[in-house]
Amino acid sequence: MDTNLFPTPVGVDDRDPILELPKVSLHDHLDGGLRASTLIELAQEAGVEIPSGDPSDMRARILGASNSGSLERYLESFALTVSVMQTADALKRVAREWVLDQAADGVFYAEARWAPEQHVQGDLDMDAAVAAVQAGLDEGTAIVAEAGKFIRVGQILTAMRHAKNSVAVAELALRHRDGGVVGFDLAGAEEGNPPSKHLTACETLHAACFPLTIHAGEGAGVDSIFEAVQVCHTQRIGHGVRIVEDMDIVDGQGTLGELSSWILDRQIPLELSPTSNVHTGAADSIETHPITGLKDLGFAVTVNPDNRLMSGTSVSKEMRLLVDRAGWDQTDLEWVTVNALNAAFLPLDVRERLLDELVIPGFARIEL
């Protein structure tokens, strides 16, 4: 691939065979995944004040702010990225480059989640913002195809849990369900903003047979996961790392609580993001991250970057960290990739075809 169009993910050796493994990225925020150079250029065009004009320095500054051990502190950098994504051209560019960065990461299916309600400070309304992002995603997909690669992407529209726009965002998602939008999400600071506050939006989506995923068990504990699963009936859990608080497990032995048993037995997918979880204080380290124990217990864990810019990461980097620091092997990486594909907001026949045509032969072809 042209390294100008498809730059190697930050922090990954361009010779690492993990880059060649086929991947799925389910939890990947659009406004958390800008290229640092693009952030700088868009800020200059929009007259937005930025702390640095050097991409390397900008990445370092954002990473430093993110690695604070607090979800609320982690979220502060989004004020900067969102501020430069207020025009159709800016949204289109960010979405196009987001797709190219996925392809460079070896991702063949990705869901771009973002909050349209945060991108209407200029002349756009939410419908126009969704259309602009879709145009960028389509452009990126076409460029990847021209380069001889395959990628499929979809939008997940996020409602901010501290706001009161969730019903409007749910209705927006339904209007665009045939135009690239594949799901709905609740995100933002979890403490004091439980999923049940947005039950009407969730019920609207369920009545329309439309998928949703909810951030839970990251900034808040087991109660937030309970509400996401049992009150709002989410199909997936965004993060969910704190489900371990509903367990008494030592060295693989012990008991599960009622909620964790429910999630395990029904294979409700957990969209885990190891580096981001460490940065927000939801986990202590990659070595001790609950993802490994949850994997070993049979939970439907998936590996995701969350925010490529904020956490300086990618799916490939997350996989490399798990191999080097948590003892994972290629079989583990394949298993979580299959989990992610099974959990993707895609029709069953498409998932089965991608499994047979990309995942199984792709992992058979590479040896770590």
Automatic annotation (TrEMBL):
Residue ranges annotated for the Adenosine deaminase domain, each copy included: 22-358
Enzyme class (EC, first level): hydrolase
GO MF annotations in UniProt: adenosine deaminase activity; metal ion binding
The enzyme's E.C. designation: 3.5.4.4
InterPro entries: A_deaminase_dom, Ado/ade_deaminase, Metal_Hydrolase
Family of the protein in this entry: Belongs to the metallo-dependent hydrolases superfamily. Adenosine and AMP deaminases family.
Protein name listed in UniProt: adenosine deaminase
